[in-house]
Please model this.
Amino acid sequence: MVKEKTKLICIDCPVGCEINVTYDGETVLEVDGNKCKKGINYAETEIVDPKRMIVTTVRVVKGLHTLVPVRSTEAIPKNKIFKVLDKLCKIELDAPVEIHQVVLSNAAGTGVDIIASRSLPAMME
Amino acid sequence: MIEKYCDVAVIGSGPAGLAAAIAAKKAGAQDVIIIERDTELGGILLQCIHNGFGIEIFEEDLTGPEYANRFIVQAKDAGVKDLLDTMVLDLTPRREIYAFNKRDGMIKLDTGAVVLTMGCRERPSGALAIPGYRPAGIYTAGTAQRLVNIEGYMPGERFVILGSGDIGMIMARRLTFEGAKVERMIEILPYISGLKRNYVQCLLDYDIPLQLKHTVIDIKGRDRVEAVVSAQVDENWKPIPGTEDTIPCDTLLLSVGLIPENELSKKAGVELDPLTGGPYVDDTMQTNVPGIFAAGNVVHVYDVVDWVTKAGFVAGQHSGKYAIQHKKESERKLRVIAGNNVHHVLPQFLDPQNLEKEPQELQLRVKWPVEDRVWVKVEVDGKLIKQQVEKYVRPSEMIKVILSPEVHKKAVGGRELLIKVEER
Amino acid sequence: MNKIKEKYKEVKGKYDVIIIGAGLVGSIIARWLSKYNLNILLIDKEPDVGTGTSKANTAIIHAGYDSPFGTLRGKLVVDGNRMFYQMCEELDVAYKTCGTYVVALTDEDIKTLEKLMENGRKKGVPGLEIISGEEMRHREPYINPDVKGALYAPTGGIGDPFMLTVAAAENAVMNGTKLLLETKALDFVVEPFSLHKKKVSGVVTNHGTFLADVTIASAGLYCDELMEKLDIKYDFYVRARKGEYYVFDKAKKLQVKTVLFPCPTPVTKGVLVTITIHGNMILGPTAKEIKDKEDTSVTPEGLEELYKGAKRLVPKLELTDVIRTFAGLRAGGFLHDFIIEAPPKYWGFINLAGIESPGMASSPAIAEYVVNLVQEQGLELKKKNNWNPIRKSRPDFSELSLEEQGWLIEKNPLYGRIVCRCETVTEGEIVAEIHAPVPAHTYDAIKRRTWLGTGRCQGSFDTPRVIEILSRELGIPPTDVIKESKGSYFLTRPTKEVPKGELND
Model:
């Protein structure tokens, strides 16, 4: 068994606990330094398959603004972020946009949807 | 000129303003109006499209626009009115508001109570006295955020970011997402000034180098920024000769701190605490001017939006009560003082009678970080009334101390409440 | 000769008078000449008027006691000061008649004051008076308590050199002068005239050749480059002298009310502590001769010098409320006198060189002096009977009463939208400047006219909005909006152009 140790900063909430993780390959053996349970989950995912929420914008035609902010419904694998961003750059929505309207479903095969994070009325003339 | 009356006028529709308006309504105020200079409610949250908002209040991870939307819906449901695209020109000590907009022209608003929720602004480049030229390509992080997230334009392609505030780190990632290169983040302090998780998910994830104990000593380029020169600093923050490094770039972003926005408060005669840059407030968030309350970043700069919202609720509730009852100010107040390793503490005045009724919260920021267990001690006229342990303290993270009604007896009759942080 | 023919080929216009350089002096000359039946062209190489020395200086209206008796400068400043305030009234440009003080800190300094006063009286500077240290402390409570006395000049004051340039250029345009910006004088059209003289009959620019009976060079820092083209040399040379400044927040508590000079040295008047027409306290200038005429960089040494110098006058001074630093350039002549003449080897050419301090106070007198020279160059000057000396400034929203603000919004709703919070500048004011007789087509041009972006947030809030307004009003993409000069773009491209990045695993 090869035990490895690493230090992580939990990003699950603004506290940012510094946690020590002992692991063997993809098995997390020990976690300490975390102030809550979220730290354990974070350490386990971060060692095996790091994931991040994705937040960006998408173009809107004839909206109050030219962009609408969007986010992923849950964290996606880190290595898929730029693939998803690529896809989102090519999307153009028609105003009006509703909050939580799906902008891109199953983004880059992650099984995660990208949704609008606000409503955007059509441009007022 | 249009003349109107309202029970409570809230100036600014960010999280503090929305919360205050909702709470004022709940407290029984009839006419509650939010005045907002932008064309939509929500304030700066609308351009903060990243997630990380609302964990304390909603136990959810929301983006800025979603967080704002929750409260906008609540405010509308509660019957809060708004005046959008409207600029407040003047506020008098008698709580008269002079404002104007394109639609109505000049407006005079007489009010029963006012809540100041104008938020804060970014410290600009001029204040830093960086030598060199003044070309195009120098922006505050917040201006860049508006350009990229709302206007849809890139302010540059190769960036150096001075200061490690949260907006700066968030923008480092945001710009990377839009295909720009962030060459470096430079921080004069020996530690980052924003939250650690932003360091991980905004800088580390994208290999953006962070240089602590460095600053920008020169800006090159006449028409547009062509490079910035960084240098290491000594313990007195003076650049160390021989450590200069020229970094080619076309844009310098500044993320060097936020300042409460209190020009209007001053016009109304509201006294400001030089330590916070915001009004002196008591435990009801009332300022020294009767009937004028304040909450959120206008009072002191917060790191978590949920606390801004909670402060808005407190101010809103008491402003509502004030407007309908003209509640008298209580006479005996404790002056709250910042002691060892405490940069500032809020509220600056505490009414022991209120403490008797319900727990009271003190919020403080430390001057320097201690990455070890520390005591936070509260004393009234030299007598210890409460102490609590913190695992660590950092200037970037606000600390709360809850005083329970049991300590009321020890506080009553006291003059000064001192709060200090001591290493164990 | 072929070369001249070549130049004539591209002739774009023929004028009675061409003025090269729309700085403060050039613009005021244009305004003065526009009184007469003349066809005038005023050109400047930059996208705005007054972007050289006129935009960044100390803005003092000198009373004239210090420029030496017997010099051209010494005479014109006293005459100019007398005409200055009426000119500001006609052009609707702000000024403050707060008087100026030269502060003596030692007994030695008092002797200098006496010399200055005598020089001033000889030249006819009115009202000069040496006041006691006590009186000075009374008038300026933050002054160095060691003050021994001060020379008070009641006719001195504070002006607005940039707006004066705009207003004078506008008034000239109103009275028929043609203004061409981004038009750089590259060479002159020179023809044979007489045995000893050649005739300057026009200017070759990047936008073609313009002919004129009289050509006036008022090129400020660049006068030497033009003189070189005509092989004109003086026993002096022109150098750019850099002056650095600190600007303080208006809301600052520690504030002086007037203009405070230290006792002068042979090189410079020293670091002043003064206020601007807008009420900001400023410290400056330093005085460093430099080679590069575009070097408006601020230096750590310069800032240090300012602080030390200003502290001598106002010891309580702290830099905590500084909102901005900047540097401006002025033409430093070696002779320390103005050169305003028709060089003898040419006909139809008037040269202005070395117009340094006190150029602003002297400006109306310089203009009258130039009018006489123009006449001597053979142009018959007849006064127009429809010349209008009055130029009204456009509404400054923040200066109006609530009632007036209401009317303005009713008339034009654009005045109901705020663009700069700190200085209360509305969209209506910005649009008015963009379409004014001397148009403001860059961010800095708008900033100089409306004072937008000069407050506490230093443009953080207004910049995106101004870019949008300029783009809309000029019909150009936002990426083409510039700050000041060509190449000073704000934005590089729209977002959403496919990013190329790789994630670090």
